[in-house]
Amino acid sequence: MPHSHFDPPYNDSPSADSAPASSPLSLSERARQAARPADSYLTGLNPEQRRAVETIEGPLLVLAGAGTGKTRVLTTRIAHIIATGTAFPSQILAVTFTNKAAREMKERIGRLVGSVAEGMPWLGTFHSIGTKILRRHAELVGLRSDFTILDTDDQIRLLKQILRAENIDDKRWPARQLANVIDSWKNRAITPDRVSAGEAHSFAQGRAAELYKMYQERLKVLNAADFGDLLVETIRLFRENPDVLANYQQRFRYILVDEYQDTNVAQYLWLRLLAQGRHNICCVGDDDQSIYGWRGAEVDNILRFEHDFPGAGVVRLERNYRSTAHILATASHLIAHNEGRLGKTLRTEDDPGQRVTITGAWDSEEEARQIGEAIENAQSRGDDLSQVAVLVRISAQMREVEDRFVQLGLPYRVIGGPRFYERLEIRDAMAYLRCVVSQADDLAFERIFNTPKRGLGDATLQTMHAYARHAGVPLMQATRALLETEELKPRQRTTLRDLIANFDRWSRQLETLPHTELAETVLEESGYTAMWQADRSPDAAGRLENLKELVRSLEEFPDLPSFLEHVSLVMEAAESDSDARVSIMTLHAAKGLEFDTVFLPGWEEGLFPNQRALDEQGRAGLEEERRLAYVGITRARKSARIMFASNRRIHGLWNATAPSRFIDELPEAHVEVTEAPAAYSYGGYARNRFDQAAGSFGSTYDTPGWTRARQNTPNTGHATSPGGRRGGNRVIEGEIVARSSGPSSTFKPGDRVFHQKFGPGTVESCEGNKLAIEFDKAGRKTVVDSFVKPA
DNA sequence: TCGCGCCCTGTTTTT
DNA sequence: CAGGGCGCGA
């Protein structure tokens, strides 16, 4: 792509400086366009695409159906703004949802306008841009600029602590659930004080809002932000500091948003605040591909765009460049069953191609066999396996397909499996590095203080915690103080002293050693690598390999902090693409991708549409499932193959399943039902009944299991177990309450005191908060006063 | 304090 | 079926 004909915009003074952005296409702009040779990047765009690219001023909604060149429009638009000198790259805010999308955009812009894209500091995900803004003004929201970003794991551990401290049974009220509740509030930019009474009841008998508040306070103490905060706290920053907001409104002359249908309320508010300055916001999306409602996305955002941004233009991209006519017609017909959509008519000029096939199988194993067989045939015809994908509704479906592929020796790759940074060893290593960078990172310290095993346990941690909470200091600092006392047992004390000394040394080396070396040193000297080397389990080697990979990827960053940030926000499993492998992934993970051939197994009621989506979201859930189906079909360029099985194993039990209602919604003229020869060879119905009978009889032997299975089937809602509370629990809880609420006054020599661990004793001397106490049974000990109460 | 084994639960999708 | 949590025994 030649692009030498336009000047880098750095030399031009962007005209918008002097001309308020009002006229859609100013005279000077038109003159500038006329003056330059036909812009090569504009050629090849169809008229609608071109309109989407060239309508620069004012709000614009681009409704881009599947395969209509959405990314191309976005990137060309940015290139256009830059190439015409309308704005500097640094004045364009371009947000995406995934890092992959951001990366791809950067690359494509780079190809269009040369290296200028490197100078686009504000192209990234909502979260990364939010972080960037937040770091600059952290003190305004009660954080320091080096705040840590908590992942889900940290989040849950933190919530668990809070629940425990509040004596809330985390069995009945799992921290995980509270995390979801809080997340859903953050998705809607609801702060603790704005939680409605009704919603507060969604957890722990109405204490949810209170817990949320404590959680937020705790985050501030820890100098940490969770994913939701990266947006919500930015919104708060903007709202409470109009000058800061104004600054960004000025800066961002042009705002572009990818996948607008996936934005949640918080993201919408965030965007609206920023767009209020210049009103140049261009959102690209497809309401038919909104599939993240469950995590707070609001289709409404895109449906209401024209209302939210008055005077907005709308461009529809309806020319599909990806799929054959049969595939397109099938998808369009299916999605037409949804109400409440903006409506698009996708068209293609390609030849009709093959019809979409629908294939039934006796059970899920046979379904997997059919997929395997079809792919083997394609392979022997010379098809490129990297152009074949199996798209499933839930990851649990992958296993059977994988098993089959392994048997056949078909190369495959699973996309979107556990992420690199979610692996145990990576998290541990990261925790070490986090502690080195910030000794106040309690969650990290807690994670690794006994990894590898050092003989420190829960008892020790509790002591450390109790002191830390009392003194209001981070764990490591608390530990330092405790080392001066006899609060801890000698062995633990020595161990902790060593550990702290290590961290002190590593922290000092932060200045002197290159960060990659430091990371290696830390992992080495902490005994962490040794731990895995000594491990005889089969995956230990892989873990060591991952650790090496971690250190290797460190090289790409200037220092540890920037690396840590990258990992928490961006890091993905290294995927070696481009070799010929079949891709297996969830439908969600498939959005934005395309393949020649797509297999869509598991189109059965309950699985797809997913029962839970139906139960929880009703009709909205059904429509989202249908959109998911639409996304699935439209991934295919040439061949889409829908499949269902009559029996599927769920939790290890075989269940009879009915074909998905979506299958009946497909247009007969564009699909064909293929007979699977082996489908009924097992005897169909009779076998089905037999199976069910066998299932029940077989299980009678296993009474608890059978009872559970029986309870499982009809029970979809909340099973309130009758009299589920254990009588003994309350007493214990009450005891803890009494203990933690005891007053902690200051003591003087001669006072009779009681220590939780050492029992009654007499104070001998005091030094600050350290007391020397002669215990009746345990002898003379130095302890801190927070562990002691008057006897 | 650690490690083992039992039991229970839940299993959509994720920045 | 699997992963996590908890209780028990060493």
From TrEMBL:
GO BP field: recombinational repair; response to radiation
All copies of domain UvrD-like helicase ATP-binding, residue ranges: 43-324
Compositional bias annotation for Polar residues: 709-719
Q: What is its EC number?
A: 5.6.2.4
Alphabetized, the UniProt keywords read: ATP-binding, DNA-binding, Helicase, Hydrolase, Isomerase, Nucleotide-binding
Q: Looking at the keywords, is DNA-binding present?
A: yes
| Ranges for domain UvrD-like helicase C-terminal | 325-592
The positions annotated for binding ATP are 64-71
Keyword flag Thylakoid: no
List, alphabetically, the Pfam families matched. UvrD-helicase, UvrD_C
Q: Where is the composition biased (Low complexity)?
A: 12-28
Which Gene Ontology cellular component annotation is one that this UniProt entry carries? cytosol
State the top-level EC class.
isomerase
Q: Describe the reaction catalysed, as an equation.
A: ATP + H2O = ADP + phosphate + H(+); Couples ATP hydrolysis with the unwinding of duplex DNA by translocating in the 3'-5' direction
For molecular function, the Gene Ontology terms on record are: 3'-5' DNA helicase activity; ATP binding; DNA binding; hydrolase activity
Q: Where is this region: Disordered?
A: 1-46, 706-729
Q: Which family does the UniProt entry place this protein in?
A: Belongs to the helicase family. UvrD subfamily.
Role of this protein: Has both ATPase and helicase activities. Unwinds DNA duplexes with 3' to 5' polarity with respect to the bound strand and initiates unwinding most effectively when a single-stranded region is present. Involved in the post-incision events of nucleotide excision repair and methyl-directed mismatch repair.
UniProt-listed PANTHER family: ATP-DEPENDENT DNA HELICASE SRS2, UVRD / RECB / PCRA DNA HELICASE FAMILY MEMBER
**What is the designated name of this protein?**
DNA 3'-5' helicase
Q: Which organism is it from?
A: Pseudochelatococcus contaminans
The lineage, from the top, is: Bacteria, Pseudomonadati, Pseudomonadota, Alphaproteobacteria, Hyphomicrobiales
